[in-house]
Specification:
Layout (H helix, E strand, L loop, with lengths): L11 H10 L9 H8 L22 E6 L5 E5 L25 H14 L3 E9 L5 E10 L7 E7 L2 H12 L5 H12 L5 E7 H5 L13 E7 L17 H11 E2 L2 E2 L2 E3 L2 H8 L2 H7 L5 E11 L5 E11 L6 H38 L8 E8 L9 E9 L5 E11 H20 L4 H15 L16 E8 L4 E7 L5 E3 L5 E3 L21 E4 L5 E5 L11 H13 L7 H12 L8 E8 L7 E6 L5 H15 L4 H21 L4 E7 L3 E8 L18 H9 L2 E6 L4 E8 L1
Antiparallel strand pairs: 1-2, 1-5, 3-4, 4-5, 6-7, 6-12, 8-9, 10-11, 11-12, 13-22, 14-15, 15-16, 16-17, 17-20, 18-19, 18-21, 21-22, 23-24, 24-25, 25-27, 26-27
Length: about 725
């Protein structure tokens, strides 16, 4: 090929080929041969040399021209390093690529064709006809006229440049498998097959320590290239036989120090491995003759081996000392990335376990609920602070709580656990939702105080929380929110919409920005479905947040009354959120059931001296209709009488008595307008003061107080 372009030859192919002419060494393929090859004479390609990369390092430039169908029309691949690439005229460029890279590279080629903008310096692997691979820096250049297609320039990666590029690529993921895969792909530049085997403790996230050689256990983390492997050969995800693990550990640990070794030929490999089963597990095929084993070592005293990387070659390509040095340098540079992925995995697992522990377990007689938690992808910033909880309150109501703590990782998880448990304790103690949020607001502010020790490196300011209390008797929901996205309520007739809540800055806001926590009450008839969620479920870069919430409302409204709620929750999440997500996804669906009208009764009595007698009369008649046992009737009648007597004696205003027949007993409630908290004194039944509460304590399985806008309610539960 004439290396001097004519004035009209200004295509990228001609320009690059002109530059190549200055770098083709003496003894390389002649211009005539190159010209013939450009016309597609693939039979003229010489055999693969013993060491195609062992010559001068400046023999690294090549170029091919593609038509609009991405087929090769011309080529100039005279440098020895490109020998073995089956790149004759008419060959699809995709045939030179590993199968897994075809979609991505094809998409980039077509983008350059359509847009006309060059794509420069992509690190890419090419397949030789013998199955080996070549690492190149590939640039895609548009032709002067669209009908002329594309020009692809190829620069075979020099070893030092490859080391830098490989280290940069390996450090981009916090996933153990992806990190190991990147390392194996980088090692393939030195051989025909590369594998990475990691200590099992790395996979579990445990601390890797010095352990006896008899206990070591290796699991294959990565293997390249992709191909059909011999039967019995260990592929990614498989555990190496114990004999193989022990032999590899012994091979790289000599004189009590981890060292790289080379087993030079097939006879030495078989002699070292011994067992045919171990040979089948470790040797990738009959053509593989020599192997370099390089330990992944964490510096320390003593050094700790995380695993072993193996690079296999054919018999005609022995390892040189300089190559072994490069392999050791690459593995040494990237071993800490594997350990970072291990630590991230351990933290991810711990936080995920805490998240799972907070998820609701089962529903009750008055409400059915289901939850889905989908964590962020392992290589993201870490598991976030999303949490949901649902639990029955002692007074018969059910609490539904959802929160989103700012940040990711262990700091967010610790705050999440603290806020979740604090909310549960306060709600169980009878506090209203707005009062609980006030306490959580104070907690977040205290956690951000420098004196607490948590301010260095983490802040929970701006976290959000929403609390809903379902009353199965009144069939309503009392809701309070601190900056959280509004729940979606689906009525029995299928109408669905987010509940209207005023905006709020969230927990821990500055004093000047703080807004009061209001309680909003909404009707929730039996059959209604309430959806509480975090922003990961509805956020989409292509949609506004209101549109995302609208999509959620539409998906939840499609839940049929006969559908299993857990299956419905999974379907909603799979519809709205992809599997691989950069933020946590949390959804809680609650289907309201409530009590039947015939299972409850309410009386409103004036606060007069005859109120206890009237209460006993009403309760006795109701229990006879409910066919309660005689002992139960006596206990409940006495209980209600004592509670009403205390209300008349110590409180003001009318007295409300409510009796509820639950699945496992009877729930008695007496409400009044007083704000004093009944306390059980140390006195006995014969003491004049406090006798009523002692009777309540003896007759019930549990009792307590909850506060209302107009006073308080004393509740007590009696077993049937």
């Amino acid at each position: 090929m004439d290396s001097t372009p004519s004035p009209s030859s200004s295509s990228p192919f001609e320009l690059v080929s002109s530059a190549l002419g200055r770098y083709v060494p003496h003894g390389a393929t002649s211009a005539a041969t190159a010209s013939a090859d450009a016309q597609g004479d693939r039979s003229a390609a010489p055999p693969v040399p013993d060491d195609p990369e062992g010559g001068r390092h400046d023999q690294i430039l090549g170029v091919v021209n593609l038509d609009k169908e991405l087929r090769i029309t011309r080529r100039n691949l005279d440098a020895a390093v490109f020998t073995g690439l089956d790149a004759g005229s008419g060959t699809p460029f995709a045939d030179l690529l590993p199968p897994g890279d075809v979609p991505t590279v094809t998409r980039r080629l077509r983008q350059v064709l359509e847009i006309g903008e060059a794509h420069v310096a992509r690190i890419q692997r090419l397949r030789r006809s013998d199955g080996s691979e070549l690492v190149v820096s590939m640039s895609i250049l548009p032709a002067a006229a669209p009908q002329e297609g594309l020009t692809v320039s190829l620069i075979a990666m020099a070893k030092r440049l490859h080391l830098y590029a490989a280290e940069t690529a390996i450090g981009t993921s916090l996933d153990i498998g992806e990190t190991a895969q990147s390392l194996a792909e980088s090692l393939l530049a030195w051989g025909d097959v590369a594998a990475v085997d990691l200590d099992f403790a790395v996979w579990t996230g445990e601390g890797v320590t010095e352990q006896s050689q008899g206990r070591i256990r290796l699991r294959r983390a990565a293997l390249v290239p992709e191909r059909v492997w011999p039967e019995g050969y260990v592929t990614p995800g498989g555990d190496l036989p114990s004999d193989a693990s022990r032999l590899l550990a012994q091979a790289v640990r000599r004189d009590d120090a981890p060292q790289a070794i080379v087993i030079p030929d097939r006879q030495a490999v078989e002699r070292l491995l011994g067992s045919p089963r171990v040979i089948r597990a470790l040797v990738p095929g009959d053509r593989s003759a020599s192997v370099a084993c390089i330990p992944l070592v964490l510096d320390g005293t003593p050094p700790v081996v995380l695993g072993v990387a193996e690079v296999w070659r054919r018999a005609d390509r022995p390892f040189h000392d300089s190559e072994l040095f490069d392999l050791q340098e690459l593995v040494a540079r990237t071993a800490h990335h594997v350990d970072l992925a291990r630590q991230h995995h351990r933290e991810h697992t711990q936080v995920l376990a805490l998240q799972r522990r907070l998820l609701p377990r089962t529903g009750g007689h008055t409400i059915e609920f289901a939850s889905v938690y989908q964590p962020a992808t392992p290589d993201s910033a870490g598991v976030g602070g999303d949490w949901v909880n649902s639990f029955p309150l002692p007074d018969g109501r059910t609490a539904l709580v959802v929160g989103d703590v700012v940040g990711h990782g262990l700091g967010a998880a610790a705050t999440m656990g603290q806020l979740s448990m604090e909310a549960r304790a306060l709600l169980s103690a009878g506090l209203a939702p707005d009062e609980v949020l006030e306490h959580l607001d104070e907690t977040v502010s205290l956690l951000d105080d420098a004196d607490s020790g948590l301010a260095a490196g983490y802040s929970a300011l701006g976290s959000t929380c929403c609390i809903a209390l379902y009353d199965p008797v009144g069939h309503d929901v009392a809701l309070a929110s601190a900056g959280h996205l509004p729940p979606v309520l689906v009525l029995p007739d299928g109408r669905a919409a987010p509940l209207p809540l005023p905006p709020h800055p969230g927990l821990g806001a500055e004093f000047a920005l703080r807004e009061p926590f209001d309680v909003h009450t909404f009707a929730a008839p039996p059959g209604s479905v309430l959806a509480l969620y975090t922003d990961g479920l509805v956020e989409d870069p292509a949609l506004s947040i209101d549109e995302g919430i609208g999509r959620l409302a539409e998906a939840v409204s499609a839940v049929h009354p006969w559908d299993t709620l857990q299956q419905a929750a999974r379907h909603v999440v799979s519809t709205l959120a992809p599997v691989r997500q950069r933020d946590d996804v949390t959804l809680l669906l609650a289907r309201m059931i409530g009590y039947r009208k015939e299972d409850t009764a309410t009386w409103r009595l004036p606060a007069r001296s005859d109120a206890p007698a009237r209460a006993r009369e009403h309760v006795g008649a109701l229990l006879r209709r409910w066919r309660a046992r005689g002992a139960t009737r006596d206990d409940v009648t006495l209980l209600v009488s004592e509670l009403v007597t205390n209300a008349v004696r110590f409180a003001a205003g009318p007295v409300t008595v409510r009796l509820i027949r639950t699945g496992h007993g009877l729930l008695c409630e007496v409400g009044d307008a007083g704000n004093g908290r009944p306390r059980l004194s140390a006195g006995g039944l014969l003491d004049d003061g406090g006798r009523g509460l002692h009777i309540v304590h003896r007759l019930t399985t549990r009792w307590g107080v909850r506060w209302t806008d107009t006073g308080k309610v004393v509740w007590a539960e009696v077993a049937r």
